[in-house]
Amino acid sequence: MSNPSDIEGSIKSFILSEFLSGEDPGQLTNTTPLISNGILDSIATLRLVAFLEQTFGIEMAAHETDAEHLDTIECIARLVRSKNGSAKG
Amino acid sequence: MSSPENLARSGAEKAALKARFAEWPGLAVIFAQVVLISFVLRNASIETLGFHRIVYLAAFGFVVNHLLPAKFRLNFFLLFSIVSMVVALGGSADSGTPEPALGIARFGVTFCIGVLLIGICHLPIRFWKRGVLLLCIGLVAAEFRSEQWDGRVLAVVWPVLAALFMFRIIVYLYDVSTSARCPTKAQSLAYFFLTPNFCALLFPVIDFRTFCQTYYNEDALVIYQRGARWMTRGVIQLLVYRLVHQLFALDASAISDGTDLIQFVVANVFLYLKVSGSFHLFIGMLLLFGFNLPETNHRFFLASSFTDYWRRVNIYWRAFIMKVFYYPTFFRLKNLGQVPALVIATLWCFVVTWALHIYQTWWIKGTVSWTWTDALFWATLGLLVLVNSLWELKRNRKRKLARGSYSPKEAVGVTLRTALTFSLITVLWSLWSTPNLKLWFHIWSLADLNTLAWGCATVACVMAATVLFEIMPVREGGRTEKSMSGLFARTAGLPRDALKCAVALSIILMATYLSARFRRDPSEFHNFPIANGLLQTLADEEAPGQGRGYYENLTSVDEGSGKFWEAMTTLKTSFAFNSINVVNDANVHELVPNAHLVKDGILLETNRWGMRDRDRDLAKPPATLRIAVLGSSHVMGYGLQAKDMFVPILESRLNSEHHSKGAFEILNFAVSGQGPVGQIWTLEHRVSAFHPDIVFFVAFTNDFEWATRDVVWDLHRNIALPSDFPSPLLARAGVTHRTLEPFAVQRLRSHDSEVLSYCYRQIVRECRSINALPVCIFLPVPHDLPLDRARVASLLQIGADAGFITIDLSDIYAGHDPNELMLRDIGRHSNARAHAIIANALYDRLTADPRIDLFDIAERISANFASESLVKKSPD
After folding, report:
1. What's the CA gap between B624 and B854, in Å, rounded?
2. Which superfamily does CATH assign the domain made up of A4-14+30-88 to?
3. Please, which of B167, B204, B694, B804 could form a disulfide with B773 given CB 3.0 to 4.6 Å?
4. Domain definitions of chain B by residue range
5. Closest to B700 (Cα-Cα) out of B728, B720, B672
6. B15-55 confidence digits (pLDDT tens)
7. What's the rounded Cα separation, in Å, for the pair B314 and B381?
8. Cβ-contact B471, B463 below 8 angstroms
9. Which of A16, A17, A40, A66 is the best substitution to test chain B (most B C-beta atoms within 10 A)?
10. B398 neighbourhood in chain A, CB within 8 Å
11. Model's pTM, two decimal places?
């Protein structure tokens, strides 16, 4: 499992390598909209979910694939933390 | 005493008030755009009267909403929606104006059932149990929708209730079941009783979570301005749709060669602009109230793959399907592996989409329509999207952080892919718009080099648009809006976006104004096709004929949605009278024989010969003067009880006041929509067998247009014109079967006297061949008053030259208010009072006209009969 403090970094690396190869990493911030900007389409979402489940050991639900949970790296990290927290607690 | 806290609060309130005042110029600019939009909607008759009223209310409502403290805004929007709904649902075709009591009754029923449905979603029972309960309520509502318990007042409620709840209740149930947060009552009610949904049966499926989360999530004026821009875009798209529909759309059955084929294929795909334009209008209006919803359609013609097309066209539908059906299915099956789960989930989504389109049709139209082409369309699109998805999963499609940063190689790739996608989508769309597979294969068998050439030209245009809008760096978007926001905040200058909208709307307003002038002015511009296209009315749009795909059929006025349209337009729908009117193989209107139909208390009956008349024997009864009447809807008694029509009134009066001179029969062969060319056919194939002594040909000023219209229709449907038709005039006018209909009509306009003259001469010739006296009666229509005297004189002169005895009834309505002589229906036909005036006037003219000498003919017939009887009695 990745270091919980580096969740944002892991997610950013994954997105950059898998979906945005060749793009300037500096342009992808923790608040860049991913769904509304068309970076996370349905296929990308499924791959991101698989990555999150595998990397952080969490189980995601179907309704968590929306913009509220996945639109920015910040949101995704918050979701991962909340799931890790609830799993530990 | 003022405490420091109070002072600070007072200072903050003052600052907020100051900021509020600073927004006024921006607000005024947006208000001006909404007012312009409302003028354009009214002038160009876009959408219904009910929707226009909502836009008028919204122009002021959004300003009031903005000025209210934030905590009251949602409640105000809910109140605004309810008031709008009462106003819209109060529309009545019987009174012609909104009736508050009717609106309240209809709203009350809708609201109560709606609250019950919302309440079920919140019951503390399991998800599936709530689903079953909703299904039960749905089934009961479905029984009402199918008019098992039809009530005239409440008939409007069911389609409206369906429009509000048929999809959103599914989204809502899903969201409240998967969210820890319970929505407020105002959020729930505002989501369902959403202005302007009750004015439109086809409405985007708004996501509940997005609806709540995007509420004022950005600078208010930026949201409002985006709303005004989307409404403007919607208006433009709807006008482009009209022009395509008017100038290029073809019916699949009218395709006769490869050029027609490519015209049909390309025009059909553009007809979706009607849906896209309406959705932009509706969602734009919601943005005016702070709901910062996403775009409904995004440059779907420029999709570079099938998955991209699925993402761009009807974005709300895709989001709904993905959320409620795709992801839950995938997550349930992901243990099977990513690829199998994706395959099953994708195919399942398209099966659901197909089924939900049938479900939607049923709720909106009240009937289920299902075709193999429909199923095949969704199956093919589903498979193409699936293959595309698997390819993307394997090859990992490259995405971009900023639009417009394409390398030359990428740009070529995107352009070629867009061209290919567009080509395949248009072919697929043609399948969806063709009633059956046999016809679809037939039209594609007509493909030739012209199809290829025009197809390549169209694809080249799409490629150019791709370069222009997708490849080249995009300078607009977020930056524009940010700078606009700054401008609004400083109230300095006019934002570029607002200026662009205002200019576009002003140009459209001017165009619709000029078009209206061209239409009224009987000059050479009278039939200018673009002017006609811009001002096409709701009734024109819904007219059967060219280019009717799924969405065209869904939004057309028919029996299933007639009551809804009557409430929204306060006009009587005409489908009852049109439902027994058929166009035969010769392209001529006929009435279905032995029809018996009661609609809105009006009995519509035809006899065994397909005449709106009492039963008649083919053989003329003895000692009877038989008159046959040819005419169109006004003579057929459109919208009237049979007893109120002038034909039976006249017949009855002649028989009661002059029975000593013999019997009189007046046979009514009039058919709604019948023009002079059709009447030649009716005379030859129907009337002649009845051996009339006199033929009344009832002429109207629109005979000029209808004669050329009939010729163009025949040309387009490859129906041979009579051998003696003056074909050289077609060559002189530059009209062939391939000339687009509005252009053909326009070109023939300068020859319309020749066409009409030919028709009239044919009618006279046919009358003489059956020994019937040809009489041409000019009848004014109250709606056309005051009459164009020169046109009437020209028409009567053509009639006289052809050999008719002419009777001019131009002045029969003198001293009457035309409005009191018209039915309040879509076609504005003559009412019972007008028919009584016609019957009296015609009686006076006929009984006094020495050229006809009605009674002399009658007495001669009686005398002949008497002598024949004597001969028969004493054969020796």
Report:
1. 12
2. ACP-like (1.10.1200.10)
3. B694
4. 23-520, 617-868
5. B672
6. 766 777 778 888 999 999 999 999 998 888 788 777 888 89
7. 14
8. no
9. A66
10. 19-22
11. 0.79
